[in-house]
Design goal:
- It is a single chain.
- The protein is an alpha+beta fold.
- The protein contains eight helices and seven strands.
- Strands 3-6-7 form a three-stranded antiparallel β-sheet, with no helix packed on it. The protein has a two-stranded parallel sheet with strand order 1-2. A two-stranded antiparallel sheet has the order 4-5.
- The longest helix has 19 residues.
Length: about 230
């Protein structure tokens, strides 16, 4: 995939109606992908995984931790931390969450919002209070160590609004690493583009019995080889 002489783009998708059937085959491919791309002197590459809990990547936490030096950027998309913990287990899900350097979050609630609130941290914020009495008006200003982005704010974000943190590099330092931003979309242009969509042609199908048996045999052969564990 990231061979400098023959770089390639690989797109792998799951079928919601048959995800349990495809899970083993996709796990096999994904585990092999992780091993192939995380090597020195390779072309820069991005591993983009949407709906992460629907597909299993063995060694994903190690890939995130070590692959940056090998020019591998890992982008993960999922709805909620609880989904990741359910499908990857507590230990592996926690390792993945804590290893990620850049975080972009939309509306989430519960444990995920609380976790993000802690991740964004606290800082000193000025508070101004005004009191009125018969003798006049008095103004007091105080500083309080408060959360930068509270969970209640994250739980009420509107569509297109995101909060998050970003990491930097040596020589490319960023002063403000936390953000609260909105993505502006041209909805009319998007609808115009969607009207021009055409269905993708079926180039190859894995639904046949013979193909399913062949994939099963390949998986058994792969799992029987001690070098792959």
């Amino acid at each position: 995939l990231n061979n400098p002489e023959e770089p390639k783009v690989l797109c792998v998708g799951n079928n919601p109606e048959k995800k349990d059937i495809y899970a083993t085959a996709l796990g096999l491919y994904n585990g092999r992908i992780v091993k192939i791309i995380n090597k020195k002197n390779k072309h820069k590459i991005t591993l983009i995984i949407d709906e992460l809990p629907t597909m299993y990547f063995r060694g994903l936490d190690n890939l995130i931790a070590t692959a940056r030096s090998n020019k591998v950027a890992t982008v993960l998309g999922y709805q909620d931390f609880s989904q990741l913990k359910r499908d990857y287990g507590d230990k592996e899900a926690t390792a993945i969450i804590n290893t990620i350097g850049n975080t972009f979050a939309g509306l989430v609630t519960g444990e995920t919002a609380q976790s993000l609130e802690k991740q964004f941290g606290r800082n000193k914020q000025k508070r101004k209070s005004v009191s009125l009495s018969d003798s006049g008006e008095s103004v007091s200003i105080s500083e309080q160590n408060d959360t930068i982005i509270p969970a209640s704010k994250i739980a009420t974000l509107t569509q297109g609004n995101f909060v998050g943190t970003i990491s930097d590099n040596f020589g490319q330092e960023i002063q403000e690493k936390r953000f609260f931003a909105k993505i502006l979309l041209d909805t009319d242009k998007i609808k115009q583009e969607e009207r021009l969509y055409r269905p993708l042609p079926v180039l190859y199908s894995f639904d046949g019995h013979a193909e399913a048996v062949r994939i099963r045999d390949l998986i058994i052969e792969y799992l029987s080889d001690p070098s792959n564990h």
